[in-house]
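ok trying this again, last paste got cut off
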Amino acid sequence: MSLLHIQDLRVCYGGIVALDGISFEVAEHEIVTLIGANGAGKSTTLRAIMGLVPMESGSISYHGDKINGLDTQKIVGKGIVLVPEGRRVFANLTTLENLKLGAYLQSDKEEIESNLNRVYELFPRLKERHWQMAGTLSGGEQQMLAVGRALMAAPKLIMMDEPSLGLAPLVVKEIFSIIRRINEAGVTVLLIEQNANVALKTANRGYVLETGRITMTGSGQQLLSDERIKVAYLGKSR
């Protein structure tokens, strides 16, 4: 069943077309990845879904209901969250304070506590460092904090923008292992990732974005073995 359905989405910035009528869908419990070069429109897609950039035309449906035109807070309330590129943690707040901010729409204290315990199970390091200022955490720990903060909203769909950016290979491996665990726990994942290799190995399905248009789609495995993908995104020569 389709959880998220994007139809003919068009977004322009000052006359420049960022997304030129793209259509795709994300089924419940899937991991779907969007891959493409810088400037292809990947981040714009996520920002449009969250209501952070205005659409020129098209529609975005979630559980069959149109969500385009809703403000971001209402979209979060429906169960969609975004882990932004570059972590964006609140450097002058503690790890725990950052996590609690993720639950700002929740009012049930028991539910908040339960979500916090789930986050600590996924990220034991955040529990160890709950007192530490977020700005003093390592890059990998800040990425874990950004994901944990998003999970505090108890989302049905989590969207991640470049979760591996600037991280060491071992930390990337750990982050992607956690993404799989989040998905296994029933959360649908829409992922943007410059590291096409790790993204396609993790995803059930992928879409290739090139200058605002979707040019290819297929299972993660199909795209990994496609010669055009190997040449364009996996660093293989012809």
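PB: full thing came through this time. The first strand starts at residue 2 and ends at 13.
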